[in-house]
Every structure is written in structure tokens, then in C-alpha cells.
Amino acid sequence: MKPGTPGVHGPARMPSDMFSAETRDGRLHLRFSGPLDRAAAAARWDEAHRAARDARAVTLDAGEVTALDSGGAALLVSLAGDEAEWVEPRDPAAQGTLDRFRKGLGTARPSGPRHLRFRPVTALGAYTLGRYHKFLERAAFMGDTILTTIGLLPRPWRLRWAEVLRHLDEAGTQAFPLCILLGTLIGVILAFQSSVPMRQFGATIFIPQLVGISLTRELGPLLAGVILAGRTGSAYAAELGTMRVNEEVDALKTMGLDPTAWLVVPRILASTLVMPALSMVMNITGLIGMSIVMATLGFPPVAVLNQLEQWMSVGDLAGGLAKSAAFGLAIGYVGCRAGLSAGRGPRAVGDAATGAVVGGIVALVLLDGLFAILFFRLGW
After folding, report:
1. Angle at 128 between CA 126 and CA 133, to 5 degrees
2. Which of 147, 298, 324, 346 is deepest in the core (most CB within 10 A)?
3. β 58-68/19-24 pair status
4. DSSP label at 174?
5. What pLDDT is attached to residue 309?
6. Distance (Å, whole) CA 374 – CA 358
7. What are phi and psi for residue 142, nearest 5 degrees?
8. What are phi and psi of 272, to 5 degrees?
């Protein structure tokens, strides 16, 4: 094969009679004829663009083109621009190739704005609308849960009590070892930390009432709530999120079953009932840890019990248990809502579990602050 043959030693040279560029009356006339394939277009690409670069007006004559591929169509379209005059190919096949290339260019443009613009008003409006829609979804879920619970009150046999017992075991019984460990450690830490300033004033004997009131009124319910949010709230969200991703929730709706009654109410009821028990475990083990520290400081158990009986009341314990029940209700609700509002992607379950833990802890702190204000106003 001779040099210049396509595919051997470089692109083919386009014969001069197949391309011409001349200026007449201030207009550049570019004329193509014969087959205009990829090799021929590459041979005349630079020359044709140099001629068209300095021209004020271009006339593109492709009437004599007998064959055309995507390379030749790219050359013609790039030379024509938006204001050039065209002489379309008379060959039907060449004209069809050119039309398909133009259509492909029109549909291949990316959607959306070409340039990113900072639009604070638009961004603020989008954020506000997104928050508003989220609020509507949460309000609808809360209303649905409340109405379903009210509907189950006169017909308690319709509640899935087996599921309630299962969740009581998972959220309560299986969490007792962790609560015992953390409660004992918290009691020991509080006693040791309190003994440092108390010893300076000779008030070491008052450590039991300090630790006891702190545990029963505040730290016991709060730490039990953190444990419930980390263990049970995330488990609720992961389980319900997986069911939503696998379209099991949609299957329940298709069968005419209410997902709220089947999935949400048993979990919220179990978390509400189990929180006072977890709080009591934290209180008792914390007092035991404090008693161990007091024994190392030379105070017998009888002295510790006398101090607790003298300064602690049933109201302290009742207030802490009431708070813990409200904490359990909020944590169960947040976990179920996060699970049922999970998306469909591969990260949906993980995001739902994370949202359940964060939302549960935030709700826990907010409720604790509200109870603190309420107890202060009531003088409790």
C-alpha cells in the first residue's frame, strides 16, 4: 500500500479538487465534494478552520458530497457555526447522516444551568420549603400514630402483644447488664468526685444524699435514655428501614393492614414501659457503687441508708420515673419515624439509624429541660 493510505502511514490526503476555499464579495465560500469521511475530514480540518477563522461570512457548499460519516459531519457543523449559509448535500444518504448528527448534538447537551450562580433568595426559599414539607410529614406521622393508638384503646386485643413482649425483652431485659455496669460506674465516679470538695468542709457524710438525689431525679433517667436511644432507637430505625427498602411496608398496605398498628404502636409501647425499669436499675446500681466508695471512706452501710432516708423522698423517685417514661415514648417515636421515612438507596438504613440516635438524644435533652422547668415551677 502507498504512503497516505488510510490506516497505514497516516490520514489520507484529500485531493484539491474535492475542497476549495475562495472569497467572493467579502464572503468565504467553502466547497466540498466527493466522499467526506473521517480521514478526509482530518486531512482538511486545520486548513478549513484557518480559512474560516478570519472570514466575516461563510457559505458552506456540501452539495457535491457523495458520502458522509460522523467525522465529515463534525467538520461541516464546526465550520458552519450559527450564521453560515448552507448548501445541503444532494445525496440522500449524506443528508441523512448530517441530519442525525445535528439531532444528536441537540439532545446531548447537559441539562441545567451552564454556570453556577449564587442565588441566596432561591436557596433560602428551597430550604424553607424543604423544612416545611418535612414538618408536614412529621405532623402527619404523629397524627397517624395518635389516632391509631386511640383506636386500639377500646379494642386492645387487636394489638400484637407478642411483638410488645419481644420488644420488651430486646429493649429491657437484654439492656440490664449494660445498665448495671454503667450505673455502678456512675455511682463510683460521682462519689469519688464529690468527696474531694466535701472533705475540705468536713461534709463527707452528705455524699449519699447528693448522689442519691442526682441519680433519681436526673442522671438515672437521662443515662437510661441515652442507652435506649443508642440500642433500641437505632434498632427500630434499622429494622423498619430495612422493611421499607425491601418494600415490606408497602406489602402490608397492599394487604389492607395498617403499618402503624402493626409496626409502630408495639415498639413505642415497649419503649415507654421499659424505660422506668431501666431507670430503676441505673438508680439502684448507682447507689450501690456510691455505697462501696463510702465504705472505703470509713462510713458503714447503716450511715449511708440513714442519710438516704433522711434526705430523699418518694417524690424524687416518682419524678424521675415519670421523666423516664416520657423519654421512652419520645425515643420509640423518633426511632420508628426515622425507619419508616428512610429512602430507597443503599445508604438508607444507615442514615435512618443515625437519624434515630441523634434525634432521640436531642429529644431526650429537650424533654429533660422542659421537665426541669416544670418541676421548678411546681416546687417539686
Report:
1. 95
2. 324
3. unpaired
4. G
5. 84
6. 24
7. -65, -45
8. -70, -40
Q: Residue 8 burial by CB count (10 A; 0-12/13-18/19+): exposed, middle or buried?
A: exposed
DSSP H or E run through 34: strand 27-36
Hey, what's the cell of 369?
Answer: 429541660
Q: 3-class SS at 257?
A: coil
Mean pLDDT of 319-328: 92
3-state secondary structure of 368: helix
Q: What is the pLDDT of residues 213-240, one digit of tens each?
A: 889 988 999 999 999 999 999 999 999 9
pLDDT one-digit tens code per residue, 189-215:
999 898 888 888 888 888 888 888 889
For residue 7, is pLDDT > 50?
no
- Categorize the per-residue pLDDT at 83 as very low, low, confident or very high, splitting at 50, 70 and 90: low
Residue range(s) in the chain whose domain bears CATH number 3.30.750.24: 16-105
Please compute the mean of the pLDDT values over residues 146-158 and round it to a whole number. Answer: 86
pTM, full prediction: 0.64
Q: Are 342 and 351 in contact (CB under 8 A)?
A: yes
Q: What is the DSSP string of 237-250?
A: HHHHHHHHHTTHHH
**CA 65/CA 73 separation, integer angstroms:** 11
What are the C-alpha distances in Å from 109 to residues 75, 103, 223, 271? 19, 11, 56, 54
Task: Give the three cell numbers for residue 29.
Answer: 465560500
The whole-number pLDDT of residue 19 equals 75
Average pLDDT over residues 32-61: 78
Which amino acid is it at 29?
Answer: H
Q: Is 87 helix (H, G, I), strand (E, B) or coil?
A: strand
Q: What is the homologous superfamily of the domain 16-105 according to CATH?
A: STAS domain (3.30.750.24)
Alpha carbons 225 and 175: distance in angstroms, whole number? 11
Grid coordinates 424505660 are at which residue? Answer: 275
Q: Is 68 helix (H, G, I), strand (E, B) or coil?
A: strand
Nearest to 67 by CA among 22, 114, 32: 32
What is the pairing mode between strands 27-36 and 19-24? antiparallel
Cα-Cα-Cα-Cα dihedral sign, residues 182, 185, 187, 193? negative
User: CA dihedral in degrees (328, 329, 332, 336; nearest 10)?
Assistant: -170
Is residue 12 a contact partner of residue 43, using CB atoms and an 8 Å limit? yes
